Amino acid sequence: MSSSCGAPDQAAPIAGAEGQTVLSGRVLSGEAPVGGAFVRLLDGNGDFTGEVVSSPDGEFRFYAAPGTWTVRALHRTGNGEASVQADGPGVHEVAVAVA
Amino acid sequence: MSRENVLVSAQWAEDNLETPGVVFVEVDEDTSAYETGHIPGAVKVDWKNELQDPVRRDFVDRAGFEKLLSEKGIANDDLVVLYGGNNNWFAAYAYWYFKLYGHETVKLLDGGRKKWELDGRPLSQDVVKRDETQYTAQEQNLKLRAFRDEVVDAIGTKNLVDVRSPDEFSGKLLAPAHLPQESAQRPGHVPSAINVPWAKAANEDGTFKSDDELREIYKEAGIDEAKATIAYCRIGERSSHTWFALHELLGYEDVKNYDGSWTEYGSLVGVPVETGTGKE
After folding, report:
1. Which fold has domain B148-265?
2. Contact across the interface for B117 and A40, Cβ inside 8 Å
3. Are β-strands B106-109 and B7-8 bridged in parallel, bridged antiparallel, or unpaired?
4. Taking the domains of chain B in order of start, what are their residue ranges?
5. pLDDT (tens digit, 9 = 90+) per residue, B147-204?
6. pTM, rounded to two decimals
7. A21-97 has which fold?
8. Is B280 exposed, middle or buried (0-12, 13-18, 19+ CB in 10 A)?
9. Which of B90, B166, B176 is closest, CB to CB, to A50?
């Protein structure tokens, strides 16, 4: 995958992330995971940074940098967003509800 | 250049799935997406294994492009409608290839796979096999393609549009945020480049913004419409999206895509590199 722009499998274990700031989470509708949602990462200014498609279990992840981020999910059943504060390297969890 | 000549809407596409002479082609960054369901009747082109030379860092050559399109069952007079995931990044890249090799009637599905899925339109897993054709390509139209020396010469003279994210432009990140960080030897951007992330040209649902909105975005960012323009990103696919907006939608005459992009430029020895926002 290294030379590809294709995002890695969104459900695979987070490998090689040492020292990186990873935003990881799930898209949910109520309690149910939402796969196939378009998950967009917006920076502190609301500008688009990246987009992935959630796994069948609703999982997604971004390799970002420390800062304040908004994760916005679009799905044919509804949209939603959540903000996440990443103070430093590590895995930061975030859940996004769509309705 | 009018929008109808280069884009089709999802509704037009659904209404023309079985129209003779119209071929839908899916090109994805995730090359397995097609198998999970595609627009009914669409064939798949793998941007990596089918559009790239297997050995050198370059495109398939003219003969290779002819062979590929013949095998896919695409004829010279077919209207090719390209679409894909990730806001049409690789579909726009393929569009640029089709134009490079002189295919006259090619359009992008506005919004690509995302808009199609958000609309809840039909997807199919049926195997698509089209009869082989005898496709004839032209020599590459190098008016559309920039190489590294031309980029160095363009510093301070032409519009250089870096379409990566602000953090990639400034040198904070080496690759988009949804990818592991690996790329060129040095982070940063080509001096004098302006940073207009590709996504500025797209709505949330993946469709292109209106011509008026696009013109305003690039004008505000500092594009001089009287000058030639070179767009680049990391590997040349996001910049194809912006090339499409500038050349195909807005009709700017001299716009090239630098497909070597930052993975080439940021590894060159001895060329000028700038970091920071470019606005200090």
Report:
1. Oxidized Rhodanese; domain 1 (3.40.250)
2. no
3. parallel
4. 3-118, 148-265
5. 999 999 999 999 999 999 888 899 987 877 666 665 789 999 999 999 999 999 999 9
6. 0.90
7. Immunoglobulin-like (2.60.40)
8. exposed
9. B176
